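User: Here's a structure from my thesis project, written as structure tokens. My advisor, Dr. K., wants to see whether a designed sequence matches the one we expressed. Can you design one independently, without my sequence as a hint?
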């Protein structure tokens, strides 16, 4: 009896504390009817659907309660700069660190996000970018000609397009950034990939703390297993000096991170660098295969590049930079399937001025969230028939890049934002574009790859991943493929399987 009363009192107190009302000049407040949780369940199930509903109800800015937090969602791209440009009242790294701890169990000491960014930038831009892209391409080609992918190069092989793309780009990316010469053992590579895919499957639940008990256990086991697989002690050979992952370790040591932290941080980096490119390549190839007109246009452009030098040849990167059709088709792919939420923590009360002149007060301790997927990317006011894949959406009539998109009569600075924007824009975007283009080009020129069912449609998206970068499909697109019958000696001469893969 006593306990029931205490519990009831606590509950009342809790409800009282968690009650908040809208003050003057604050965005519309929608708490949902479930105490504390608020809209968390609906949000997690399908964030795009939920936010669309809220937008219909409240407009371009509103505050919702999600698992005890108050999140102000801003959906007017003309006003995004008010959030992106303010690094005094709004903070990026705190929430990022909360997620880092929750997902990867890693806490970097003396972490300086700006320094880390600058460090990363050296690797993924300029000269080192060209080198990395080259190594990546070599790895893709040697994997494609390896026995795990193709027992007999002239036989058709069946697979799902998603697992084909993710599997290849993950392995090649892993070898490029984490692998070392002569040390690679293909069963190790497969183990890393398989464990990673399982971990990736749980990721959105880990991030939202919605794991069931057995899933929680599994997440821990997977994390441990991946830490082991990624740690140098477990891996054959010595680290290649000068490799990306070696340098990253050194960077961590300079920041004062101990061995254990370094070990754990590897998984964080594996995820950051490998989780988006594979799914992006899947959507890209999938849209091309299911849109014959787009495929034809892309192939025409590729033919005009005259790259017939053979498939194990290094692709001339400079030529790959003048491919407006391929670029537009890739940008269109990302418009439809990149769904990041950009989150900032409000450090001090702030007045947010919208493009239309309206001002809203943001409360300290809340979070602000942009969801560019809804607007501009899928906004019918910005893009005509936004749910349709139009490979030339980003091209003018004369074949040059189209940059004029409007909302409410105002020309948009941000009309698609797959990489985020502002100070925290994706560091790896140039690398990502380069490897996805290379990959698609390689597949289209060196392989016969087709849908098993010529009338197959793209699978729907897995709605639980809205907010976590590239979307993933619910289901597969069945394909069959084989290497083109080119000069037989042009395959595999770079060494079989995964040797010769050092940076
Ligand atoms: C299609 C592929 C990719 C997409 C759509 C993508 C998207 C993004 C986005 C939206 C962010 C910003 C997150 C935020 O503002 O909270 C980001 C950050 C980042 N991305 Fe990517 N990314 C891709 C591929 C890659 C690749 C291949 C690499 C590296 C090899 C990479 C490295 C990074 C890093 C290091 C950051 C953190 C930047 C920082 O801390 O400021 N990304 N990515
Ligand atoms: C590859 O590595 C695994 C352990 O990671 C080991 O069990 C296996 O024997 C190795 N295979 C070869 C061919 O070296
Ligand atoms: C969708 O994604 C969630 C979380 O990543 C995962 O648990 C679920 O199995 C996925 N559904 C399908 C059908 O792949
Ligand atoms: C595609 O997007 C990239 C930025 O990711 C941009 O640099 C490029 O000019 C765009 N190209 C086209 C044709 O839209």
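Assistant: Designed independently from the structure alone:
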């Amino acid at each position: 009896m006593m306990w029931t009363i205490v519990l009831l009192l606590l509950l009342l107190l809790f409800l009282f504390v968690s009650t908040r009302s809208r003050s003057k000049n604050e965005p519309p407040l929608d708490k949902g009817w479930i105490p504390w949780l608020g809209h968390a369940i609906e949000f997690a199930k399908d964030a795009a659907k939920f936010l669309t509903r809220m937008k219909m109800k409240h407009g371009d800015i509103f505050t919702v309660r999600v698992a005890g937090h108050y999140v102000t969602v801003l959906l007017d791209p003309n006003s995004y700069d008010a959030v992106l440009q303010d690094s005094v009242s709004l903070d990026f790294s705190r929430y990022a660190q909360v997620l880092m701890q929750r997902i990867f169990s890693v806490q970097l000491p003396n972490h300086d996000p700006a320094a880390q960014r600058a460090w990363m930038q050296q690797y993924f831009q300029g000269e080192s970018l060209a080198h990395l892209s080259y190594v990546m391409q070599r790895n893709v080609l040697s994997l494609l000609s390896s026995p795990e992918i193709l027992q007999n190069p002239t036989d058709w092989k069946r697979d799902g397009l998603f697992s084909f793309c993710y599997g290849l780009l993950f392995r090649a990316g892993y070898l490029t950034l984490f692998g070392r010469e002569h040390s690679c053992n293909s069963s190790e590579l497969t183990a890393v990939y398989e464990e990673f895919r399982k971990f990736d499957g749980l990721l959105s639940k880990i991030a939202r703390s919605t794991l069931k008990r057995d899933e929680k256990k599994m997440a821990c086991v997977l994390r441990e297993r991946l830490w082991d697989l990624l740690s140098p002690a477990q891996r054959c050979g010595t680290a290649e000096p000068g490799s990306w992952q070696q340098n990253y370790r050194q960077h961590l040591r300079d920041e004062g991170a101990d061995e254990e932290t370094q070990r754990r941080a590897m998984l964080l980096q594996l995820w950051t660098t490998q989780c988006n490119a594979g799914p992006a390549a899947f959507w890209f190839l999938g849209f091309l295969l299911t849109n014959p007109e787009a495929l034809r246009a892309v192939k025409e452009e590729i033919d005009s590049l005259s790259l017939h030098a053979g498939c194990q040849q290094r692709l001339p990167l400079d030529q790959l930079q003048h491919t407006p059709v391929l670029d537009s088709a890739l940008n269109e792919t990302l418009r439809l399937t990149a769904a990041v939420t950009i989150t900032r923590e409000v450090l001090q009360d702030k007045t947010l001025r919208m493009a239309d002149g309206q001002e809203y007060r943001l409360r300290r301790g809340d979070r602000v969230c942009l969801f560019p997927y809804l607007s501009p990317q899928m906004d019918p006011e910005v893009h005509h028939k936004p749910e349709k894949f139009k490979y030339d959406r980003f091209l003018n009539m004369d074949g040059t890049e189209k940059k004029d998109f409007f909302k409410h009569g105002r020309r948009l600075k941000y009309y698609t934002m797959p990489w985020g924007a502002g100070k925290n824009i994706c560091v790896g975007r140039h690398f990502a574009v380069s490897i996805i283009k290379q990959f698609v080009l390689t597949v289209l020129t060196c392989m016969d790859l087709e849908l098993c069912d010529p009338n197959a449609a793209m699978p729907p998206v897995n709605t639980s991943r809205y907010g976590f970068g590239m979307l993933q499909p619910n289901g597969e697109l069945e394909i069959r493929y084989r290497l083109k019958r080119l000069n037989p000696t042009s395959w595999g001469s770079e060494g079989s399987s995964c040797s010769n893969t050092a940076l």
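When you compare it with your expressed construct, this may help: Residues 324, 327-328, 331, 394, 401 surround 2-acetamido-2-deoxy-beta-D-glucopyranose (ligand 4) (CB under 6 Å).
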